[in-house]
Task: structure prediction
Amino acid sequence: MNGRKGFTLIELLVVIAIIALLMGILMPTLSRVKKQARATACRVNLRQWGYIWSMYCQDNDGYFCTESQYVTWPRGNWVVALRHLYETKSGILLCPTATRPHPLRNAGQNVNYGGPFFTYRMGTGSEGVELHEVQEEASYGANCWIYNPRPGQIGGKIQGRPTDWNWKKFDVKGGNDIPVFGDSMWRGGGPFYDGGSAQSDRIMPPQVDGQWLNARHEMMHFCINRHHETVNHVFMDWSVREVGLKELWTLKWHRNYPMDGPWTMAGGATPGDWPEWMRNFKDY
Result:
């Protein structure tokens, strides 16, 4: 006899317990690393979008695209105006953290909006009389205040929004604070204070993450907890960075937008003013 023996049952159970303990310690770390990798990949996508928007503006004397007269959603027109620049790499329409359709749509409901981790369905239409029937799935949206109004719209309004507030061209002062394109649960939005009220539907924060009421609630389109209390955006100087969810209210969405409005620290907002799910997020 050689005197060798195998593991006892107790030794085996101890080894299994140690492995389980290590897995319990490592899994949250691995999950965070995976989420961070997706957020980084999202910013890589948005850098490509920065190039696309830059090329479009350079090809059009510095102007952004116009709000289309050929579709029923004119303030989401970036998709048809820029399609020729991205259609060979349409995968960049998707944030790596949000690649699946909304579960309600999978259940057969007519739901076109997305969510923090879900895509929305784009409309149809093109810049000519022939409709484009493609309805892309996407998880990025545009700041609808960037558009260049058509001559007949100058000095007027589009869907109740003054066109004089639009940026029109990319070469403006303070571009690093002006969002162009980023994480969204809808094709775009134009947040603004309606009469200076913090309770304006166009500026109100969502009561729960991913809340959808209708297309008028435009800050809700961007205020989604996609990357651990942040989202990613391209800015008008073509830089890309993460933005804290409460920081969204401090960005310069349009020419008259108050960066110190009532949902900012400078405007008097306190943690207790925010919906419960956002109260512990970083204040700005």
Remarks:
- Residues 53 and 59 are 10 Å apart (CA to CA).
- The first strand starts at residue 100 and ends at 101.
- The helical segments are 9-59, 78-81, 83-86, 103-106, 218-222.
- DSSP finds five helices and ten strands in the chain.
